[in-house]
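Escalated from tier 1: 1-O-phosphono-alpha-D-glucopyranose holo job.
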Amino acid sequence: MIGKCLFPVAGYGTRFLPATKSMPKEMLPVVNKPLVQYGVEEAIEAGMSTIGFVTGRGKRAIADYFDISYELEHQIAGSDKEASLEGIRRLLDRGVFTMVRQREMKGLGHAILTGEPLLGNEPFGVVLSDDLCLNEGPGVLTQMAELFRQFRCSIVAIQEVPMESVSNYGVIAGEPLKNGLYRVEDMVEKPAPQDAPSNLAIIGRYILTPDIFDIIRETPPGKNDEVQLTDTLLTQAERGCVLAYKFEGRRFDCGSVSGYIEAVNFVYENVYL
Ligand code: G1P
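Tier 2 regenerated the structure:
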């Protein structure tokens, strides 16, 4: 029912400089696959086979990756090296990949609005590929798509984090509905620990209903002078309903060097070997 998923990938990745000086942070390998591929696999598993990238300058490697590499494929055709391309080839067959450029970085809300022409008037998924989410059972977006079928409103993924790190996240407060599911009553982008309504942090997986676009258009810049998706979701929650869902699975913060190293070690030991 949700056929599209948006990937805002225009950010600079300054925490990984100098590696990200001339390559997108989304192409950093987690063992032998680029970070963004894990997110795309998760979206396609959830039935979201139209993938929209909101890209920016210096991100061409992402567009090239989700295309055939004619020269390379011709060179290795018939050799045992071909097997290593099977996963990405299968993914390319199952998805449609579209792009739009975000010319200026004005926040996550602005990035989502930039993706509007790729999405149309239907609910859609959002993946922030810095957050690598792995689960032995259904992926996080599959879990959220199932909830959407029941509740038909925007849903954000959440996780409990230590109180001292809430200032890295959007933080929610809500009324518990059932196991791990909350109806959002408050939401604050990157609060100081003493101002945080809880330690339930938003993780980079969302399902959004398309009325979010008009709300983004009317939302002034917030934290760091950027149009924050968190602020628009609070408006949506106040006018109707937004759910927050404590998902099943592990999440690695690959936007930080330590989280990235943890992910590489985990994937190497548990998935790759
Ligand atoms: C973004 C969102 C934030 C969310 C986080 C999850 O922040 O603005 O609400 O908690 O992603 O990774 P960023 O990490 O891009 O600064």
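The CA atoms of residues 32 and 272 lie 8 Å apart.
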